[in-house]
Amino acid sequence: MHRYLSPTATALAILMTTPVASAAEPAAASAADPAAAPAEAPADGSAGVSTSISLGGPKADASAGANGGKADDGAANEKWIKRYRPTRNQMELGIFGGIMLPNTNHELYDPALTWQSYKKLAPDVGLRFGFYPLSFLGLEVEGSVVPTKLRDGSSNALIGNFRGYGVLQLPYRIAPFLLAGVGVMGTNGSTIGNDVDGTVHFGGGVKFYINRLLALRIDARDSVTAKHMVDGGKVHHIEVLLGLSLLLNRKKPEPKRDIDSDGDGFFDSVDKCVKVPGIAPDGCPPPAEEPDTDGDGFKDSVDACVTDPGTEPDGCPDSDGDGFKDNVDKCPQVPGVAPDGCPPPDTDGDGIIDANDKCIQEPESKNNYQDADGCPDEVPKAVVKFSGVIKGIYFDVDKDKIKKTSKKTLDEAIVVLKEHKDVRLEISGHTDSDGNRDHNIDLSARRAEAVRKYLIDAGIDAGRLTSRGAGPDEPVADNKTKAGKALNRRIEFKLLGGAGDVGVK
Fold it and tell me: Which of 94, 123, 178, 252 is most buried per CB count within 10 Å?
């Protein structure tokens, strides 16, 4: 009977503090320095030489300008978190060391020999190589050796690892990462024999890119192998590693050229007012001769509203845009008319001003009939008859030709329209859902227009009539029945309001 040991779970927390280094600002150039003068285009039209920003002060600035305006290293001008961050196609060659906690229930032994457990703690050293086709994604391979002893101290043993894995990392100077892959783990010892098992490997950590050539990293790993005397069983071997990597094939940062942010002819390295266009000698604007408190372009001496930005002619605002400045507008937030900038009165609140309202105390009913007079009214019965679905208008199947049987209905409509000359109509055509929708919309539009033309030919003003085709989109009955389809094939008249309806909100 074998006695089995429980696996040991180990958790390690690693705290890493990184000081933040601020990039030194270049020393300001003297106004007397020739390099501080604005760049002027040569008379022959050739491009002038630009002055560069440098970390070495005025002397270095002059040197950089003489060499084409290039800065020594673009990284110096980046934020510290982005400085020296990984780049595409970067390679990393590293060494590492740390500790490994071999699981006591391992399967790393020669079955022909007696199984024994390893000591719980062992040193772990190795080499690794990585290639990063993308700044955030890479592939790495590594090998390590773990010299150890058996738990009873009877003999030495050597554990070896070889594995490959993918790495996913944040592409910054401080780069947390995750990794996962596969590999093999083997053992060699006089007592325990030789054996190699496959492993599943995963973990994570953080990298710190010290400079362009070196990176420091801390890893926490877990290698999963077979469990002793348990079919399908798994055990975990924990590692904590500290490594140093040499960075190869890094993409060099683009040199940073001096710029002129405000476009005043003074490069930022010598411009004392970088964000504001200025003049000689320092690129700053001349001092204002007179203040403009509200910044509206009117000097305080001529601004009638010193603290309120305004417009011509006196610098005062017109909040409602009615042409009356706020200082004389009795209704500054509501567009109005003469004499005081207030809107004209509308006593009954029907949207028709009193000057155009025939019934000042009674609101307009707004029923699309004589809505411009401001008085309540009812639509005449004769007009109501020709509102909505108009029965008695027929067409040949799939055609827009009006049948002769429709003449009576249409002629009655003509009589009503001639009697009530302020009535305007929308004529809409409708179909059932049979057939192609686009065809039905076109057919309904042609039928509605045919009705409109009939009325126009009879003397009705074309400006009073509009037409549209709705096709099958506005059914009034179920298209699944024959009776419903018949109801959906129709012409409708809709009142649009009187021709003189103006002033209605």
Answer: 94
Which DSSP letter does residue 375 get?
Answer: S
Written as six digits, the tokens of 28 are: 């300001």
Tokens for 181, please give them.
């892959």
Contact 182, 200 (CB under 8 A): yes
C-beta atoms surrounding 244 within 10 Å: 14
What is the tens place of the pLDDT at every residue in 266-282? Answer: 888 888 898 989 888 88
Instruction: Please tell me the distance from the alpha carbon of residue 262 to that of residue 382, in angstroms, as a whole number.
Output: 74
Question: What is the DSSP track for 136-186?
Answer: TEEEEEEEEEEEEEBTTSSSEEEEEEEEEEEEEE-SSSEEEEEEEEEEEEE
Q: Is the pLDDT of residue 185 over 80?
A: yes
Virtual torsion, Cα 397, 399, 401, 407, nearest 10 deg:
40
Backbone angles phi, psi at 193, to 5 degrees: 85, -165
**CA-to-CA separations, 288 to 245, 259, 284, 310, in angstroms, rounded:** 58, 27, 12, 20
Domains 90-248 and 381-495 in one fold: no
* Digit-coded pLDDT (tens) for 11-69: 333 333 333 333 333 333 333 343 333 434 333 333 333 333 333 333 334 333 333 44
Distances (CA, A) of 392 to 317, 398, 408, 413: 62, 17, 8, 11
Strand order in the sheet with 490-495: 388-389, 490-495, 425-430, 465-471
Q: Which fold has domain 90-248?
A: Porin (2.40.160)
Backbone angle region of 398, left / alpha / beta, with phi > 0 → left and psi within -120 to 50 → alpha: left
Please write the tens of the pLDDT for every residue from 474-491: 999 999 999 999 899 999
| pTM of the entire predicted model | 0.40
Q: What whole-number distance in Å separates Cα of residue 79 and Cα of residue 59? A: 24
Percent of the chain with pLDDT over 70: 75
Closest of 55, 84, 79, 68 to residue 251, by C-alpha: 84
Are 355 and 344 in contact by the 8 Å Cβ rule? The answer is yes
Q: How many CA atoms lie within 13 A of 100 on its CB side?
A: 28
Q: Are 158 and 187 in contact (CB under 8 A)?
A: yes
- Give the per-residue pLDDT at 191: 85
Q: Where are the domains of the chain?
A: 90-248, 288-343, 381-495
DSSP assigned state of 253: P
Let me know: does 361 contact 346? Beta carbons within 8 Å.
Answer: no
Given the structure tokens 């002055």, which residue do they identify? 51
